[in-house]
DNA sequence: ACCCAGTACTATATAATGTATAGTAGCTAA
DNA sequence: TTAGCTACTATACATTATATAGTACTGGGT
């Protein structure tokens, strides 16, 4: 899949998946990859950045399937940022679709 | 507007706008900016790259409103590439919308 | 006891691309 | 003649997805 299209959207995906429950990195990679193929190396930098910016709180929890998991919990600021991103996406994709429709109507 | 969302899409926009008739750079900047705000510095590198890759043929034409204009004409390969990009975009935006719908249904 | 696969995270370097900024140059109108 | 619009070029920069490598824990097969 077109790599450039993903720019900015992975952030949105990560935030959405943490909306209903706390998630850990490895889980996010595989959940998101069901829809949009991504690499492990893409998720962890995003998680660190969003945490640094105050959109996630984190805590460690033991696992019986491997090393401890770092869980990411959406903060209030994170929720607001997510809403903004979704709104931006809706406007953006609408504009792109209009350009395509107007340009391709044969 | 979210800068990252634009990555990869400007290319698609440029190609679409040259589908019905040949265009020059300055014209493209302003046409596309009606829908998605972009800078002059974004368009010209794209035009040079797409030309280098064989998706555009170019020719100069005089203008009575300023310096000569370099027109960009979509090649057959350019048309095929555009079709591919639109197809990629449709799949991508569908996936993103599914993720948003599934994640935000309260 | 040993090795391998799967799980889980971290760190670094790289590639792609939109933007900012600056510069060149032609035309028209006040 | 000067300002403003038109039109293109070039360079440096910021952001972000990826590739790659490494650390480390668990459990199963031999």
UniProtKB/TrEMBL annotation, chains A, B:
Q: Which InterPro entries match?
A: Metal_resp_DNA-bind_regulator (IPR052509), Tscrpt_reg_PadR_N (IPR005149), WH-like_DNA-bd_sf (IPR036388), WH_DNA-bd_sf (IPR036390)
Question: Domain Transcription regulator PadR N-terminal: where?
Answer: 20-83
Q: What is this protein called?
A: Transcriptional regulator
Species per Swiss-Prot/TrEMBL record? Neobacillus massiliamazoniensis
């Amino acid at each position: 899949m077109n790599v450039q299209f993903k720019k900015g959207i992975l952030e949105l995906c990560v935030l959405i998946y943490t909306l209903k429950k706390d998630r850990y990195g490895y889980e996010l990679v595989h959940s998101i990859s069901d829809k949009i193929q991504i690499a492990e190396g893409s998720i962890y930098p995003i998680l660190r950045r969003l945490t640094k910016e105050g959109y996630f709180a984190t805590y460690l929890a033991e696992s019986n399937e491997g090393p401890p998991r770092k869980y990411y919990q959406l903060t209030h600021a994170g929720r607001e940022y997510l809403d903004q991103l979704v709104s931006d996406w809706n406007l953006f994709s609408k504009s792109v679709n209009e350009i395509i429709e107007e340009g391709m109507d044969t």
